[in-house]
Design brief:
5-stranded antiparallel β-sheet; 390 residues
């Protein structure tokens, strides 16, 4: 479950088809690392969401209403200043990287036409959202990357934008049969075919690689360990050709009504045990998937907050209960101490300074056999600890 380069290619194709020529009306930043661009297109109003967070990075159209902060963040104010009223000229993907660039035609402070760019890097925890001028010089970004964060590439205002460092992998859109066989021959033979594809080519998620191998197995009617390189290439080519031709089949895999996987192609390797729901557009599929995930995350967060409150209340009640039990234990001899105090108070005239014990008549203890009152020895130190009112 990852927003890989194939998914980005599908989103870029959809945005380019629908929103090219659209005019920006409003820009919002509902979260720290997320912006929403409201634009007017030929097919009506659209909201383009770009999330550069580490948990759910993505770019797509959205219909979900989100609450915006009372005070717009600085990055949002900057985008409003430069892009309000701008026109989306186009969107492109850098090779088969998880990076795309939105090109806007606008006017500068002097009224002359110019171009501005928003670069969306959808790369997991390294995701970022960068705003650049016509010369691709960085104006601002959601996340700044300085020398203390990365020594390979810095993202700072005033610097010229550079792509992330390239990986030592091949581009699946530019490979052919001979190149595929060469990479397969030099790969580690103990790895599974889907691991080979993920390790040899950029931008391919593990679920997409498993789908390639499954389609190769279905076509050849062989078990996966028995597949040859040419048969693996057939399954590989089916998925890559769908990206080249723009033939996407977005879907979500459900397990017990819970979405567990999404893809820009139909995932058939899950079999009939799980439910595969197809969608007409990639944005609709992403909206459905992440809305369900966000709802589940909110429920878990609220449950955690309630559990924290209840745990705190329980600990306070238990602490009070222990204190009351200790007080009750200390008050078990309270009746006796009260009697001692009453006797000392009633016979105060018999006491002298420095006396520690005294024997007094207990008029409450009448002995019928002896026809006499009982006596009790009261310790002065104990009696002095009691309030005089008692």
């Amino acid at each position: 479950m990852a927003f890989d380069a194939g998914m980005l290619a599908a989103v870029v194709h959809e945005i380019s088809t629908i929103a090219t020529g659209g005019r920006i009306e409003k820009i919002y930043q509902p979260e720290k690392e997320e912006i929403v661009i409201q634009m007017r297109t030929l097919s009506g109003g659209k909201k383009l969401l770009i999330n550069a967070g580490s948990s759910n990075p993505r770019i797509s159209f959205t219909s979900v209403q989100k609450e915006n902060p009372m005070q717009a963040p600085m990055f949002c104010m900057l985008l409003r200043k430069h892009l309000t009223g701008a026109t989306l000229e186009g969107i492109s993907q850098f090779g088969f990287e998880r990076v795309c660039r939105l090109e806007f035609k606008t006017r500068d402070e002097m009224g002359y036409e110019c171009k501005k760019y928003i670069i969306a890097e959808i790369m997991g925890k390294y995701s970022n959202l960068i705003f650049a001028d016509e010369g691709m010089k960085i104006i601002s970004s959601v996340k700044t990357v300085d020398f203390s964060t990365s020594s390979l590439r810095q993202v700072l205002p005033g610097m010229k934008y550079e792509l992330p460092p390239p990986q030592d992998k091949a581009n699946p859109l530019e490979t052919d049969y001979n190149e595929f066989l060469r990479l397969y021959d030099v790969s580690q033979k103990d790895r599974s075919p889907d691991k080979f594809i993920c390790g040899a080519y950029i931008g391919i998620a593990s679920s997409t690689a498993r789908e390639m191998i499954y389609r190769a197995r279905v076509q050849s009617c062989k078990d996966i360990p028995c597949l040859t390189a040419s048969e693996i290439f057939e399954g590989f080519s089916v998925v890559i050709d769908s990206i080249k031709t723009g033939n996407y089949s977005p879907c979500i895999i459900y397990e017990n009504n819970t979405p567990i996987e999404y893809s820009f192609i139909e995932l058939t390797h899950y079999g009939t045990n799980l439910i595969c729901k197809r969608f007409d557009s990639v944005s609709e599929m992403l909206d459905t998937f992440f809305e369900s995930r966000d709802k589940e995350a909110r429920i878990k967060q609220r449950a955690a907050d309630l559990f924290k409150i209840l745990s705190h209340a329980e600990s306070r009640i238990l602490k009070k209960l222990e204190a009351q039990k200790s007080e009750i234990f200390e008050c078990e001899n309270g009746v006796i101490y009260k009697k001692y105090g009453d006797l000392i108070t009633a016979n105060m005239y018999q006491l002298s300074r420095g006396q520690t014990t005294v024997e007094l008549v207990d008029y409450e203890d009448w002995n019928e056999d002896k026809q006499d009152f009982g006596r009790c020895i009261s310790t002065m130190r104990k009696a002095e600890a009691l309030p005089r009112s008692r």
